[in-house]
Amino acid sequence: MLPREPHPIDPGHMPPQSLRFGRFELQPHERRLLVDGAPATLGARAFDLLLAMAARPGELLTKSELLDQVWPGLVVEEANLSVQVASLRKVLGGDLIATIPGRGYRFTGTPAQVDADLASVATAPVPQARVLIGRDADLSRLEDAMRHPGVVTLTGPAGVGKTSLARVLAARAERGALWVDLAPLTQADQVLAALARALAIPLTDDNPWPALLRKLSGRLLVLDNAEHLVDAASKLVTQLLQTAPSHQVLVTSQQALRVEGERVQRIGPLALPLDSDALDLHEGAVALFVERARGADHRFAGSIEQLPLLREICRRLDGIPLALEMAAARVPVLGLVGLRDALEQRFALLTVGRRDAAARHRTLEAALDWSHNLLAPDEQRLFRICGTFSGGFTLELLVQVAADSAVAESRWVVIETLAQLVDSSLISTDAANPPRYALLETMRDYARRRLVASGDESVQRSRHAHALADLARRAAAPDIDQSAQALMLAEHDNLREAVAWLLANEPARGVEMAIAVASVASYGAWGREALQWLESCEGLVEGGTLSPLLRAHWWRERARQRVVTRDPRAVAMSRRALELYQGFGDDRDEFMALGVIVRASYETSDDVEELCVAMRALLARHPEWPLSTSVALAGVEALACEQRADHEGRLRYRLLEYDLACRCGWQAGADAADTNVVATLLKLGRNEEALSRIRNILDRLADKNSRNAAYAWNAYLGTLLPLGRYDEFRAAALQAVPVIRKNSVTSIPEHYAKLLALEGRAHDAARMIGYAHSAHQAWGRKPEAITLRNLGRVERIARETLDETTFNRRVAEGRLLDDAAADRLALGPHD
Fold first, then answer.
1. How far is residue 764's CA from residue 688's CA, in Å, rounded to a whole number?
2. Mean pLDDT for each consecutive 10-residue tract of the chain (831 residues)?
3. Pairing relation of β-strands 18-21 and 112-114?
4. CATH 1.10.3720.10 matches 375-455
5. Strands laid side by side in the 150-155 sheet
6. Hey, which of 198, 372, 465, 553 would disulfide with 501, CB 3.0 to 4.6 Å?
7. How high is the pLDDT of residue 360?
């Protein structure tokens, strides 16, 4: 048989109108089969075969008849017919085509004719509204918006619940509502026909609006799922409201119509649970998940004890109702723990949608495919690139990753395309200035899958990592750049992924980046994690493949980080860096290494003064060095004074350190120096002066969870105790303790023990000693010498009241306390 173009079925055998049977609609003139309103993929011969059989339902069609109709004028083997029947059964199921052995086939469906002009339109009365959970505020805002004539558009990402919200509002409409689902439509000219069909009137006049409006009779018009035909929907709404301005229209769409007078209501995911009990089983995403899980299995408890797991599941599903409902359906089989673990493969897991849902909402991937397929190719590409970011991104960072530097207009192309993705509800933005953009985690996972499928993942991950490495390099530059540091510190999640990618693919660049990030993050809430990134480079550094200079940088930064945790190994690390630097003759690097050695020398050291002299000489030799080097020297001089017990000298240098840091615009350094001033004032017994200074620091850092804020809170608590302000201590601790713990400062057990001892609560003080030792063990740190001295004082006070057996029992009890129990013991009400 010679190859030739598919031949359509003889018009004489073609039904004059579209045919609907069950979930299917056969449209002869459009040569299309709809399944649940969505076009199915059928080959030309398979379509002709289905058309031939559906035109004569219940009749036996012999093989020769079908071969003549589907392959007219050709000699074709019967095996071709079997292949096409098998193809149809994959789409229709096995029941609609019956095989009559040895003779032919019979179509068993019962097709109903549909007006051909309106064949593709799926309309219905207002669908029954399900009980809304977690949408009270959205519904209230929507009702307020609908109090006036005109159009209101509900926008939001796929599966967020726009249709559910519209159903509730439509059910409450005083004069009733007309519901038109646009999802099954594929062409712009079908939108007006859909409205006419819903009103059961023909489109015969050049101006159909008088007849349409008479039949609409002032009812609320709801256009559901308009995003794929947004231009046609906009035109229809505009024409309707120009003809009858008093009417009301509600539209659900992933993007706004952009017509005059439109009031856009953006619908976000359900409220996600906090770590506290502020949102419980009856609120937000958790409430919806529990309700749907109970619907799937009445034995599901949804108890308070399950809240941690429920919180984690709801967060990982971004509070998207569609995803939550699909996940809840898996609870009877997997349980909560199994469900949480299975979310690593969420698109394979979330495939159980409601049978009465539209086809695009029966799996999570289908819902996102619908949204993705509406995008233009350049929008799809940028969406994939956005998937490389973790924790959001700025416009400038996206431009650096996505723009073609060889094309001057590329930056504006990225900006315009990003705006389209925001308008399409695929990317969200906050209210900050400048704004920050983000994908929901589910969207990001989907975008990454698309990126992998495109074959462009390696290139884009490399560009992402290099952009973040460049940002870290600028933030860590010697001439302090506050804005660059702030930008870097905001990219915690992106930095984590960039460091990991570079260490695996470009090790030297990865080590450089880890050093830069750790140096800037020292004063941030995630400085401890940055230290772990730095430590993970040890194998590469010791492997001998990196340059000696890069190894020296790594040893110096590692030592500097260890100084913060008072690790005694910091001295040896910093001396190793110094040895490497001395081989290069780089004065500034040698200067910085000397400073780390002094900072690492916690106890009295004979060579501290000698090291200070060397640093003074190097700084005098280089007046061109940035002011930040003078800040470093002032801090070293203060430490040298501390070792000599010269606390007046220590205060003088700490004040100089603070002044110099302010002059060079290094706010984080100035905050750190200020907390050091406080510590020195406390050492001098100038408690009231220290307290005043601490309050100023806390006012300045009120909205920051920085390590400097943790140190300031720590000093504040430590100052209140010797002043006997125990009630003030407890009130302050409610704010202070979360910040201190978040920044891995280990002083809380010590403060609690001292408080309880000073109040004469010997039993509880002994318990707190046990908690302190177990906490330090959990942190993997030995208590510092000063901590051991303070706990020793508490122990002596407790032993004055308790006998040996009782004391040891209370200490053992304290070792079993967790953080929350320790907080209740120290800060809660007591007799």
1. 29
2. 38 59 78 76 84 86 85 77 86 83 82 51 53 85 91 92 90 88 86 88 81 89 92 94 93 92 92 62 84 85 84 89 87 89 79 55 76 90 94 92 72 90 88 84 90 93 95 86 83 93 95 93 78 90 87 92 79 89 86 89 72 92 91 92 90 95 86 90 89 90 75 89 90 90 85 93 93 85 80 92 94 92 87 60
3. antiparallel
4. no
5. 122-123, 177-181, 220-224, 248-252, 150-155, 263-266
6. 465
7. 54
Which residues have CB under 8 Å from 784's CB, separation 6+?
A: 566
Closest CA to 574 of 588, 565, 587, 562: 562
Whole-Å CA distances, 557 to 502, 511, 596, 608: 19, 11, 9, 20
Give the model's pLDDT for residue 224.
93
Q: What does the block give as tokens for 792?
A: 């020793």
Cα distances (angstroms) measured from residue 614 to each of 7, 573, 577, 592, 767: 92, 19, 16, 11, 49
Q: What is the reported pLDDT for 115?
A: 45
The domain made up of 121-266 has a fold known as Rossmann fold (3.40.50)
Which residue, among 158, 167, 175, has the nearest Cα to 135 in the 3D structure? Answer: 167
Residues 822 and 753: their CA atoms lie apart, in Å, by 10
Give the span between the Cα atoms of 823 and 831, in whole angstroms.
Answer: 16
| 177-181 and 220-224 beta bridge pairing | parallel
CATH number of 11-115: 1.10.10.10
Find out whether 233 and 257 touch, Cβ atoms under 8 Å: yes
**Which helix (H) or strand (E) element contains residue 59?**
none
Query: Which amino acid type is present at position 4?
Result: R
Tracing tokens 């409201």 back to the chain, one arrives at 241
User: Do 100 and 88 meet the contact criterion of CB atoms below 8 Å apart?
Assistant: no
* Phi-psi label, residue 546: left if phi above 0, alpha if psi -120 to 50, beta otherwise: beta
Residues 6+ apart with CB under 8 A from 192: 203, 208, 232, 236
Helix (H, G, I), strand (E, B) or coil at 121: coil
What pairing do the DSSP bridges indicate for beta strands 248-252 and 122-123? unpaired
- In 10 A of CB 831, how many CB atoms? 3
**What one-character DSSP code corresponds to residue 393?**
B
CB crowding 678-701: b at 16 or more within 10 Å, else e = bbbbbeeeeeeebbebbeebbebb
Reference 515, options 486, 538, 482; nearest CA is 538
What is the secondary structure of 492-557 as a DSSP string?
HHHHHHHHHHHHHH-HHHHHHHHHHHHHHHTTSTTHHHHHHHHHTTHHHHHTT-S-HHHHHHHHHH
Secondary element (H or E) of residue 645: none
- How far is 663 from 666, CA to CA, in rounded Å? 8
Taking the chain, what is the end-to-end CA distance rounded to the nearest angstrom?
99
The rounded distance, in Å, linking the Cα atoms of 329 and 350 is 9
Cβ neighbourhood burial of 720 (10 Å; 0-12, 13-18, 19+): buried
Alpha-carbon dihedral sign for residues 510, 469, 379, 364: positive
| DSSP-derived 3-state class of residue 106 | strand
Backbone angles phi, psi at 790, to 5 degrees: -65, -40
Q: Please report the pLDDT score of residue 230 as a whole number.
A: 93
Rounded to whole angstroms, the Cα distance separating 198 from 178 reads 8
Q: For the beta carbon of residue 113, count every other beta carbon within 10 angstroms.
A: 12
- What is the rounded distance in angstroms from the CA atom of residue 269 to the CA atom of residue 417? 23
Instruction: Tell me the one-letter amino acid at 97.
Output: I
Q: How many CA atoms, within 13 angstroms, populate the side-chain half-sphere of residue 629? A: 23
CA gap 350, 344 in Å, rounded: 11
Rounded Cα distance between 515 and 496, Å, is 13
Contact 826, 732 (CB under 8 A): no
Q: Specify the pLDDT at position 831.
A: 60
Query: Rounded to the nearest 5 degrees, what angle is found at the Cα of 689, between the Cα atoms of 684 and 694?
Result: 105
Strands 248-252 and 220-224: parallel
